[in-house]
Amino acid sequence: MKELSSGQIRQMYLEFFKEKGHSIEPSASLIPVDDPTLLWINSGVATMKKYFDGSVVPKNPRMTSSQKSIRTNDIENVGKTPRHHTLFEMLGNFSVGDYFKKEAITWAFELLTSPDWFGWDPDKLYMTVYPKDTDAKKFWEEVGVSPDHIIEVEDNFWDIGQGPSGPDSEIFYDRGESFNNLAADDPENYPGGENERYLEVWNIVFSQFNHTPEGTYEPLPRKNIDTGMGLERVVSIFQNAKTNFETDLFLPMIHEAEKLSDNKQYGKDHKLDQSFRVIADHARAITVAIGDGAIPSNEGRGYVIRRLIRRAIVNGQKLGINESFLYKLVPIVGETLKSHYPEVLEQSDYISKVVQSEEDRFNETLAGGLKLLNEVIEAAKQNGSNMIDGATAFKLYDTYGFPLELTQESAADAGIKVDEDGFSAEMQKQKDRARSARSNAKSMGVQRDLLIEIKDQSEYVGYNQLEVNDAKAVVLIENEKLVEETKSGEAEVIFDKTPFYAEMGGQVADKGDIFNEDGDKVAEVIDVQHAPNGQNLHTVNLLQPLKKGATYILKVDEAFHSKVEKNHTATHLLDQALRNVLGGHTQQAGSLVEPGYLRFDFNHFGSVTSEDLQRVEDLVNEQIFKELDVKTTITDPETGKKMGAIALFSEKYGDQVRVVSIGDFSIEFCGGTHVKNTNELGLFKILSESGVGAGVRRIEAVTSKEAFEFLNDEEHTLKQIAGKLKVTQIKEVTNRVDQLQQQVKELEQKQASLEAKMAAQQAQDVFGNAQTAGKYTIITGVIKDSGMDQLRQLADTWRDKKLSDVLVLGTGKGDKANLIVATSEDGVSAGLSSANLIKAISKNIQGGGGGRPNMAQAGGKKPAGLEAAMNDAVDWLSEQ
Q1: CATH fold for the domain made of 6-249
Q2: Into which CATH architecture does domain 561-707 fall?
Q3: Whole-angstrom Cα distance, residue 741 to residue 746?
Q4: What pLDDT shows up at residue 438?
Q5: What is the number of alpha carbons within 13 Å of residue 378 lying toward its C-beta?
Q6: Longest dimension (CA), the chain
Q7: Which CATH number among 1.10.287.130, 2.40.30.130, 3.50.50.60, 3.30.750.24 corresponds to the domain 449-547?
Q8: Which letter, b or e, does each residue of 366-384 get, where b requires 16 or more Cβ atoms within 10 Å of its Cβ?
Q9: What is the rounded distance in angstroms from the CA atom of residue 344 to the CA atom of residue 337?
Q10: Which residue from 462, 488, 466 is spatially nearest to 476, judged by alpha carbons?
Q11: How far is CA 286 from the centre of its chain?
Q12: Could you give the C-alpha distances from 444 to 41, 162, 269, 543, 699, in angstroms and in order?
C-alpha cells in the first residue's frame, strides 16, 4: 500500500479525472445558495443540481470535485462509531449527458487498481449492483472483477423523489479478517452488510430516469453520472488506520486535546476515546462552517454550530479540560486542510474569536445545567422516585448541551434511571418541528429538455448600448413548444443580440419594449433570465404576433436601468465599507438590486452599532463625493484574483470574468451593470440594519433621488415635531426634548412617592388583618393605585415586622395585574415556598411567574381576578 497523506490522496483523485477530460470544480460553501431544501451542502451532487435538472448547461459536461459537506442527522453517533462525522469531504466525478456506465466503471476500476494511481489489490474489492442493472454487472466483469465479487442488492437504487434517479453500484474494500467483528455465519457478514471488515468507499449512481410528479420513471433525455467517495474512509485505508480518526485528518486535533487534558491519552480508555473523537470531529466542523459564514445561534445552521460546540465542551470536561479550549484547535484544523482550503487558515483568527466567545458563554450555562441536574437528582431522591422524566433529560440536552449519556451517568451514581423513551419522544418532536420548518420546495427539478436543446447564439450588448435596431428573433417558445410565429398572451424569445440584462447576481432583469421595423410596439419585456446554455431568454407580453427570423427594435427602459445601475454600484461601495469598518471577515451573503432600493446581506458575528453603521454610510458617501471612475477589466479568474478582486464562494467563474474597479477603493468580480462615475449616485442613505438569520445581517439603503426624498421626509417630520414642541428651529428640538424628559422624570418620582404613601396607608389596614390558615398565618390584600415596586417595599416592611408566616399582595392598573408572595424564614424552614404558591394563584390573573422560596412575583392581564387569587392563597396554605 502506498504511503500517502490526505492532501496527496485528494489531489490524486482530482488529477486522475482531470486526465479523463474533467474540469476540477472548487468546493462550494457549506451554506447553500438559492436552495431552501438544504440546511447544509450535504454531498457533492448537492452543488450540481442545476446541471442535473437541466436549468444550466455546464461549460464542460465532465466535472470532478472534492466537496466539503455536513450531515447532522446522527450527531449522537459521532465518536461512538469508526466513521460517523459531521463534516466530511466527498470526492466525486460527474457526467452531465456525456459518458455513462461503461466509462464510469472502467475509470473507477483504473483509479483504484492501477499502480500509477491508488494501486489497490483488485482481489480486495467487491461491488454491489442493482439486480435489474445487467449492464453494470457486465461492465464490472469486463474490467476484470470476478463474478463472485459482484453482489446484487435490491436497495441499490438512488431515488430522492421527483427528478433524476437511477440504479447505483457501491464499491467495498476488504480490510481483512483482523477487522472482522461478526461471526462467520452472521447474515450481515458480507460486502454491503453492517460490519467493520468490508468498508464502503465509493458509490456510483447511474442517473437515467426522471421520477415524474405522477410517480412514474421515464428515461432521461440525457443520462448522468454522479459518484461519491468519502475522503476520510479512503485515507483510513491508505494509512492503515483502525478508524477514520487515526489519520492525519483528525490526529493533530486529538494530540492537541491530549496536551490540554488532565494527562489523558488517546487509545487507553474506550470511553475517553469517544470524547477525543467528538472534540476532533466537532472542531473540524465548526471551524469550516464558521469560515463559510455560519454563526452560533438558536436557530437553523447556527443552532447546529452551537450544539456542536457544546457537545465538544462537555466532552472536554470528561477529559479534565475545565476552561475554554476549543478555539485553540481552530488553527490546527486550518493546517490539516490548507492544501485544498487555504481560506480556513487565513480566517483562523476570526473563527477562533467566534468560538471562544461561544465557549465562554456556554461555560456559564454549563454551570447552570449542572446545578439543574443536581437539583433534579436530589428532588427525585427526596420524592422516592427512581426516574428522571424524559422532558427534563431533553431540556438538559437541548438547552444546556448535556448528552443523554452524561445525564444517565450522573443519575446512575445516585441510583436513578432516565426515561429514555420520553427523551426519544421529545427528540422526535424537535426533528418534526425542524422538518416542518424546512421549505417543501422540490429538491431537484425535472429536466426541461426543450431549453437544453437550444444552442442558438445570443450576444448581450447592454454594457454599452440600451437600444438595438436590428435584433433577429432566433427562437420563439409558446406553451412549451418551439413555434415559427407567436399568437397572443405570453411567450419566450431569444434574439441574436439584446440590450436587456438577464437577472443575475442579485441585479433584477431589465424591462422595456419591442418594436417592429415600422416602429409599432409589438411586445413588452417583463422578465429576462438565462437559458441553460447561457442565452438571454426574454419573457414578453404580446401586443402583436412575433415571427421567427424577423428583425426587431429592442429598447430598454432607460430610467429603470439607470436606477438599478446606481444601486448596484452602491452595493459594491457598501460591501467594501463594511469590510473596512467591521473587518475583513464580513462576506456577502446575498443581495437584491432593484430600481427603488438595494438590499445587502452579509455575515457578521454580533450586532452592528449605530456608530459603526454611521461610519459605513459616511465612508460610502465619501467615495461618491470623490467622483471615482468605475472601470471594467475583462480577464481570466486567476489574473483577477491577483488584481485583488473579491470573489464570492457561491459563484463559479468561467474562463473570462469582468473585474469592476471603483477607484482604488473597491475591486470585485461582477457581471452586472454599473455607472461610469460614483458622482452619478449623488447620495447614499441607509434605511435599516437588522439580523435576518444566524450570523447574517441585512442593510437596506437608497441612492440618488430616493435618498434625497428619504432625507426630505425626515426633515419634514422634524419640522412637525419642532412645531409640536413650540420651538422655532429644528436645532432646538434636542434641547427641548431633554427638558421634557427631565420634567417627566420629576413627575414620575412625585407619582411614585405619592403611590408609596397611599400604599403604606392601605397597608396599615391590611397588616392588621392576619388570618389563620391551617397551622400557619397569612396576610392578604389588594392595594389600589400601586405598582410592583411599592408591593416589594411593603413586603420588606412586613418581613422586618414579622407580622405573619405568609404575605400575599396584589395590585392592578388598566389591563395589568401584579402579585407578590413573601414567606418568613420560619415558613421556609417548615417547607413553604413562595414560588409554589405564586404558581398556584397566578392563573386567576391569567398570568405566570416564579421566584425563590422566600419571595416570588407574577404578572398577568386580569386585575379582576386578584380577589380570587387572595382566596386561593388562603386555601392553598390551609392544605399545607
Answers
A1: BirA Bifunctional Protein; domain 2 (3.30.930)
A2: 2-Layer Sandwich (3.30)
A3: 9
A4: 43
A5: 6
A6: 103
A7: 2.40.30.130
A8: beebbebbeebbeebeeee
A9: 7
A10: 488
A11: 12
A12: 14, 7, 45, 35, 31
Nearest to 165, CA basis, from 515, 445, 453, 496: 445
pLDDT along the chain (880 residues), means of 10: 93 97 93 81 86 85 95 82 91 94 97 96 95 95 95 89 86 91 85 88 92 84 91 95 94 95 88 93 95 84 88 89 94 95 91 91 76 79 80 80 72 83 83 53 54 88 95 93 91 96 92 95 95 92 95 97 96 96 86 93 86 96 97 91 77 79 94 95 94 82 95 90 87 88 90 75 79 93 83 88 92 90 93 92 89 91 93 93
Give strand ranges (E) for 121-197.
125-129, 150-152, 157-158, 163-174
| List of residues 6+ apart from 401 with CB closer than 8 A | 307, 310, 311, 313, 314, 362, 365, 366, 369
Those residues whose C-beta lies under 8 Å from the C-beta of residue 639, and which sit 6 or more positions away, are none
Q: pTM higher than 0.85 for the full model? A: no
Cβ partners under 8 Å of residue 312, min gap 6 = 278, 279, 282, 283, 286, 326
Q: What's the gap between Cα 82 and its chain centre?
A: 27
* CB 568, CB 507: distance < 8 Å: yes
Q: Cα–Cα distance between 365 and 566 in angstroms, integer?
A: 48
CATH code of domain 767-878 = 3.10.310.40
| Domain parsing of the chain, residue ranges | 6-249, 449-547, 561-707, 767-878
CA 832 – CA 818 distance, rounded (Å): 21
d(CA 430, CA 307): 14
